[in-house]
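During the reporting period the student researcher (J.K.) took over the structure-prediction task from the postdoctoral fellow and processed the backlog of single-chain submissions. One of the processed entries is reproduced below for the supervisory committee.
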Amino acid sequence: MGLTWFITGCSSGFGEALTRQLRSTGDNIIATGRKADAKLSHLKETGAAILDLDVLSSPEVIKSKIDEAWSIYDGIDVVVNNAGLIVADDRSQDDMEKSFQVNFHGPMNISRAVLPASGYCASKFALEGAVECLSKELAIFAPGLKVLIVEPGYCRNPVFNKIQHVEARVPEYAQFNEAVRQAEATLTESSPGDPEEAVARMIELVKGTGMAEGRKVPLRVPLGSDSWSRVKTKCEETLEICREWEELAESVDI
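J.K. obtained the following structure tokens:
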């Protein structure tokens, strides 16, 4: 049985190619993009449903578009956040904001309209990606300037008592949300990390003193045994993916 795909940015590139290939296998496609009547009309011949969608739209508009898409095939199985914007060279504040709106906030609004999710980790991950890009740019244009991503684990910090909660918009999330709240209630007292020691290590990393003295500080440093363990596990999982899927990865080379 075929799947129903909701794909953004289908006027060209991966979005168009995905639409054509998936339609050839009989899957249902909801191809979206700006000015869909003009820019996506060529995909109608594939049998794909066409929907006008600008990822810069407000969350309310995006939600209404998702509802419209949902009604076409009575559901959505796969969401592909493909639409993107590349801003090269020196970027103004407006350029940066538009880039984040298209590449991050828009896709998040689409994903949340289909399936709600927490934005904290996503927003921090976006910041980490931006800083990593900045480090590569500085290595070329200003090698004397360095950036550092400190990834602390759980510390006994009163910040956990100040977390803002909202009621679950989807009933199925209520039990999960309650479990998270109960876990958070113990973090201030039960977390393994000492915030004072964490701050001391941060200062040493920046100043090149203490445990960082005489060492080349990398871009990314975990702090805390729990953070170190998660980073190590993530690296091992990524290496395993590289080993297991090497042949498939190389199969697309010309």
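The committee noted the following: Residues 1-115 form a domain with the Rossmann fold fold (CATH 3.40.50.720).
J.K. will present the remaining backlog at the next meeting.
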